[in-house]
Each structure stands twice: as structure tokens, then as C-alpha cells.
Amino acid sequence: MGASLSNLTEGANGAAIGPGLGDIPESCVACVFTYLTPPEICNLARLNRAFRGAASSDSVWEKKLPINYQDLLDLLPVDRYHNLRKKDIFALLSRPVPFDDGNKEVWLDRVTGRVCMAISAKGMSITGIEDRRYWTWVPTEESRFSVVAYLQQIWWFEVDGVVKFPFPADVYTLSFRLHLGKFAKRLGRRVSSFEHTHGWEIKPVRFEFSTSDGQQASIESCLDETEQDEASGNHKRGCWIEYMVGEFVVSHSEPATEVRFSMKQIDCTHSKGGLCVDSVYIIPSYLRERRKRGVLK
Length: 297
What we know:
Elements: H1 2-7, H2 26-33, H3 38-44, H4 49-54, H5 58-62, H6 69-73, H7 78-81, H8 86-93, E1 97-99, E2 104-108, E3 115-120, E4 125-126, E5 135-139, E6 147-151, E7 157-165, E8 170-180, E9 182-186, E10 189-193, E11 205-211, E12 216-221, E13 240-250, E14 257-265, E15 275-284, H9 285-292
Antiparallel strand pairs: 1-2, 2-3, 3-15, 4-7, 5-6, 6-15, 7-14, 8-13, 8-15, 9-10, 11-12, 11-14
């Protein structure tokens, strides 16, 4: 791209015929960069010295960071970010920043700089989790936290969690990531077992959340299908599904927003089992919609 753009300023013999990209003042390039995404800025930085200098400007990257990015940095040891330029701070925060003993993670989306969060099953309160007759912890590469909670069988199913965080102003979506059946790798292939999977088609699970400023949302959903498609089988089994509970709006990062969330099926007329609980995601709704359309990866 850089070569083709540079050729626009050269004649047939390679002689310069007018001002080129190298003649654009770095301050002008930096002004343009404030309207571009971080990946676009990094790509253009390879064009020439002025573009490279502008791509490292603190004034450019300050606008890509959330207004309260210091709150995210405060979760890290000071020596991890001391004296870093804003570009390097963005790169640092675009990787997962763990907190709450590593059971929660927050990070910046690499394209938009918006704040995302994930909460591990280990960061939630799960009824009966200490009893191996009901629950076990399963190591896996399919979770960002490397472990999921697997339910073998229980009558009273309840998972609760809470997080308090200074989310930047935005609209956020909260969802649960679940998997019907137990999965493993055999001979390099992923296989699922539904030996313990039962009871989820009888009554729906209730998902809900509430925020410290009074916002609430809830849905009910049967985790298993009562009718199977003869061709494809039960499409909810053997794959990860995100159950979107709803949206909440944050107007200011201070005071910090507290979010309480839960999923329950406490009808004790039947047992249920064969379910993996991975995590809860709190993601800006804008990113969720763009990913659904395949715009962001």
C-alpha cells in the first residue's frame, strides 16, 4: 500500500513530480489518525517517518483509551505500566487484565477501545459446588479461564454472581455462556457426552440481573429442546451457547456500577444435570451487534 501511494508522486523515470506523503506534517497526520481505528493506525504507520511518528503520538492514543483507563491500570502492578506511552498502555489493556484472584477479567476491544468483561464460574456462587456428587471442575482450552463447572445432577440449581466496576459510559449486554453435555478430545477430535444431560426440557431456567441504579432484566429459556430435528439432532447440545439476559446503560464511570446476576431452576419436582457453566460476559452492545453481523472478529 505504501509503495503504490508513493508512486503517485513520481514520474515515469522515478523523478518526483510534486509533494508526496513524506511532505505531510506529522501534526496533520496525527489529526487524521484520531478518526481511525487502532489497527488502521498501525497499518499506516509503515508508510513513512511522519506516519510512524504520528502513530506513536500520545495525543492520538489518548483518544482511543476510555476516559477512566487509569481504573483498569490500577488493577495491575505499577511497574507494568510506569512510564509507558499511551500507545503501549492501549496495547497492554487490550490484553486480559485479571482481578478478583483471577476469577474476573477486563480488557479493551482492539478496534474500538471499549471495555469488556468476563466473569468465571469460579467467581460465582454455585449451590452445591463443594459436593463432588453434584459438581466437578473440568479443565479445558475452550474457556478463557481454562476451567468450567460441570453439573452431573442436582435438584436445586442456582448460580449467582456480583461485580462492582467503574464501567465507562456505554450500553452493555450481559450474557451467560453454557454448554449442554460434557466434552473432551479423543484422538485429536472433539467429542461430547450426554450421559448426565437431563431435565432441562421440563421447565425453563430463569436468567436475571439488576444494577445498583435500579435497572433490571430477566428472561426464561429451556436449555434443552423437547423435539429433535431428525437430520441435525438437538442443536443446543454439544456446543457453547450464549444466553443474552438483557442490556443496561451506564451514564458515568463514577460511582462504580454494581451488577448482580443469576440463573436458577429451583423447581424440586425433578432433577437436572449434564451442564457446563463457563462464564458471564458483560460486553458493549455495539460490539455484540457488530460481531453478529461479522464486522468485528
